[in-house]
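About this split. The held-out portion is used to measure sequence recovery: a designer receives only the structure tokens and must propose an amino acid at every position. Recovery is the fraction of positions where the proposal matches the reference. Here is one held-out target exactly as it appears in the evaluation file.
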């Protein structure tokens, strides 16, 4: 059955990969639910004199391979299931990228656009006080949608105020001046572009002769679109939450970035025609990059897709049924757990740099990122080949589950 519940989609993939990969059923049983869920409420007196109680979560999915890490999402419709899904994706992503870490995700149900900067700072600090994260060897929160470098700087400061000492590796996605890694902000987009290039080369697609559509023009989508444009690919369609733009001869992505910086939206960019967010999936193109939110490609729109390569920059953008149908149509899907692992990888570098107090230049970060993400792609592809399956997603999950299985066996958990 098709579902847009992204946690159910994650469990479907887990169970399918577990079955095909002959993973110990006890390992799969452990992974049916998170190891630990911390759900709490944050009361806050807002600057305008009003009062609100915010629901907050931190989910540790699995720490079989190491400390739980990453992600704090703030959005108005946040659900616990969404956080659970993101936490299992993070677990698999770390395995896929050979990072000795477990997967976690946190979040606050709030609308950042309705909070003043001062309220946002107090909310973030209250999140840290309520959560009491236990540092680089237990749980390292990072950023996600609705949070960024500034929020992580407040988190780090609150953590250090509580503990009375400096500890940059306790928080990820910090600004470089506070111990963050260079290249962190562009890491996910750069990683997506790197695996996209590898997958296109395998399919004998010449990027300079291809057309691409990118859904989402935020931190990730804008970097992917810019890198595609620089590689000579015609980016013919781009959309964001307000709608989309289309130009069959290609959109000037640098100009679009300036337009978005000025207006906050892609719509009304000169030289393009307006399309709806849904129409982006039917765009005439060879490459499709969903870089917005989950479950956007489903059985209701999968048939319209003309691209032969889909690279999942967003987490969980394709539902289970659509995934099966697209794979049957020989459309290559580079799955989220590989394609968007660049951010998690540079967070790993950030923690490594923080623990050693040695900071790397941008070329070093980018070179190491490219090496790791290409290896993750190769591992997924080789595992899919070993099990004679067309799905890179199942290949990536089997490869990850084999590592989790080994770690759980060695620890004596199963
Ligand atoms: P962002 O908030 O910077 O940008 C999101 C973009 O998607 C914006 O352009 C927004 O307008 C658009 N959008 C939001 N809802 C939409 C909708 N319903 N339809 C169409 N467009 C919509 O976020 P981001 O950091 O670029 O993240 C994008 C995706 O990539 C998310 O799924 C996120 O989980 C995933 N991801 C991000 C990172 C990272 O490092 N930022 C890492 C891994 C995965």
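Reference sequence for scoring:
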């Amino acid at each position: 059955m098709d579902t847009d519940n992204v946690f159910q989609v994650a469990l479907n993939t887990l169970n399918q990969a577990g079955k095909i990969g002959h993973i110990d059923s006890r390992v799969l049983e452990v992974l049916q639910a998170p190891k630990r869920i911390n759900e709490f409420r944050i009361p806050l007196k807002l600057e305008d004199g009003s009062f609100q109680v915010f629901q907050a979560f931190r989910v540790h999915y699995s720490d079989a391979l190491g400390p739980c890490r990453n992600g704090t999402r703030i959005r108005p419709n946040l659900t616990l299931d969404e956080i659970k899904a993101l936490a299992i994706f993070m677990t698999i992503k770390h395995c896929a990228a050979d990072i000795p870490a477990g997967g976690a995700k946190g979040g606050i149900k709030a609308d950042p656009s309705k909070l003043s900067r001062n309220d946002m700072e107090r909310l973030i600090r209250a999140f840290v006080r309520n959560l009491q994260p236990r540092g680089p060897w237990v749980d390292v929160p990072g950023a996600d949608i609705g949070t960024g470098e500034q929020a992580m700087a407040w988190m780090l400061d609150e953590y250090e105020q509580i503990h009375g000492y400096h500890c940059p590796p306790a928080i990820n996605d910090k600004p470089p001046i506070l111990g963050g890694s260079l290249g962190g902000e562009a890491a996910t987009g750069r990683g997506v572009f790197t695996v996209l290039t590898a997958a296109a080369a395998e399919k004998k697609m010449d990027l300079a002769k291809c057309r691409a559509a990118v859904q989402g023009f935020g931190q990730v989508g804008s970097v992917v679109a810019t890198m595609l444009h620089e590689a000579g690919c015609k980016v013919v369609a781009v959309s964001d939450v307000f709608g989309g733009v289309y130009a069959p001869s290609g959109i000037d992505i640098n100009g679009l970035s300036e337009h978005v910086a000025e207006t906050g939206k892609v719509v009304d960019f000169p030289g393009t025609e307006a399309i709806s967010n849904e129409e982006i999936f039917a765009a005439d193109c060879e490459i499709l990059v969903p870089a917005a939110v989950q479950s956007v490609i489903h059985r209701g729109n999968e048939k319209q897709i003309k691209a032969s390569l889909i690279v999942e920059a967003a987490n969980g953008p394709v539902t289970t049924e659509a995934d099966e149908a697209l794979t049957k149509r020989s459309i290559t899907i580079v799955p989220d757990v590989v394609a968007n692992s660049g951010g998690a990888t540079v967070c790993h570098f950030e923690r490594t740099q923080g623990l050693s107090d040695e900071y790397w230049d941008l070329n070093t970060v980018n070179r190491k990122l490219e090496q790791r993400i290409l290896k993750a792609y190769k591992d997924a592809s080789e595992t899919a080949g070993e099990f004679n399956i067309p799905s890179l997603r199942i290949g990536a999950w089997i490869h990850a589950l084999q590592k989790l299985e080994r770690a759980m066996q060695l620890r004596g958990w199963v």
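Annotator remark: The chain has 13 helices and 13 strands.
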